[in-house]
Specification:
The structure is a single chain. Helices cover 64% and strands 0% of the residues. It is an all-alpha fold and 73 residues long. The chain has two domains: 40 residues, no CATH class; 32 residues. It is extended, with a radius of gyration of 16 Å. 0% of the residues are buried.
């Protein structure tokens, strides 16, 4: 049981299928590709970084949808 990962979205029947799949993909990616980094960070820092990355991705996505060119800072 220790090696099994239980995803919260597995127990949320009102979550759309696409969101559930994306949550699982993100969780798997974080666990198997970034676990050593996450083990060394306080949860508050890890969550803050995730929020910053989400903001950056959504800002870039909105810019492309509006026809703006991608700008590298």
């Amino acid at each position: 049981m220790e090696n099994e990962t239980v995803f919260q979205s597995d127990f949320q029947p009102d979550v759309p299928d696409e969101v559930s799949v994306l949550r699982k993909q993100l969780a798997i990616s974080l666990k198997f590709h970034h676990s050593s980094t996450l083990e060394r960070l306080p949860i508050e820092v890890a969550v803050q970084v995730m929020a910053e990355v989400w903001d950056a991705c959504n800002r870039n996505s909105a810019s492309r949808k509006n026809g703006a060119r991608r700008h590298v800072e």
